[in-house]
């Protein structure tokens, strides 16, 4: 071992020196050079820092730099996140997205253009004028539809979601508001009133008949029976017709 190389290192180093730091790492750790001013120091890390990707070899695991426009990468030729001002597409960092794609400033990726989609029209509404369906000849009817897919930044904008057109209806008079309902309520009340009146009269009649029947029965029980008067013809003396 070189006199400047030590094996009693800290921080995951297998071998190190006072001037260059780590020279080799313990198993499964990655070796990477960090620049401090004009000097490079070797360090051992459990994972590679941003801007580097890891490669494993039988004798050493190293962290290699990504491309200049790439912030994080899987390999040197496959970027997973781009630096500011670049958009990620298929592992590459581009300043401008290809045709048919658009730049997503939120994810900093090139994504497909999404056009607006609307549902089918609803049936036409009844012909109305000022909120009424009677008392006029010409009015308007409308139909509506919903947006089922909102567009992306470069997608086709959404169409109108409502349409109106003129309509003609047969003129008819409007029933006064509340009149029909009021008449129905009055008829219902009168019917209930008449029915209640008839019911009360029937009840009173039954009660009166029952009371008269009970009164007759009581009178028959309390009044003594009349004796049958004798026949006047039987009490008269026989008349002598000889003279």
UniProtKB/TrEMBL annotation:
GO terms for biological process: positive regulation of non-canonical Wnt signaling pathway; Wnt signaling pathway. It comes from Syrrhaptes paradoxus (Pallas's sandgrouse). Residues 11-110 form the R-spondin Fu-CRD domain. PANTHER family: NEUROHYPOPHYSIAL HORMONES, N-TERMINAL DOMAIN CONTAINING PROTEIN, R-SPONDIN-3. Residues 175-219 have a biased composition (Basic and acidic residues). This is R-spondin-3. GO terms for molecular function: heparin binding; signaling receptor binding. Residues 174-243 are annotated as: Disordered. Interacts with the extracellular domain of FZD8 and LRP6. It however does not form a ternary complex with FZD8 and LRP6. Interacts with WNT1. Binds heparin. Interacts with LGR4, LGR5 and LGR6. InterPro entries: Furin_repeat (IPR006212), Growth_fac_rcpt_cys_sf (IPR009030), R-spondin (IPR051514), Rspo_Fu-CRD_dom (IPR043601), TSP1_rpt (IPR000884), TSP1_rpt_sf (IPR036383), TSP1_spondin_dom (IPR044004). Keywords: Disulfide bond, Glycoprotein, Heparin-binding, Repeat, Secreted, Sensory transduction, Signal, Wnt signaling pathway. Belongs to the R-spondin family. It is found in: Secreted. Residues 116-170 form the Spondin-like TSP1 domain. Pfam families: Furin-like_2, TSP1_spondin. GO terms for cellular component: extracellular region. PROSITE patterns: TSP1. Activator of the canonical Wnt signaling pathway by acting as a ligand for LGR4-6 receptors, which acts as a key regulator of angiogenesis. Upon binding to LGR4-6 (LGR4, LGR5 or LGR6), LGR4-6 associate with phosphorylated LRP6 and frizzled receptors that are activated by extracellular Wnt receptors, triggering the canonical Wnt signaling pathway to increase expression of target genes. Also regulates the canonical Wnt/beta-catenin-dependent pathway and non-canonical Wnt signaling by acting as an inhibitor of ZNRF3, an important regulator of the Wnt signaling pathway.
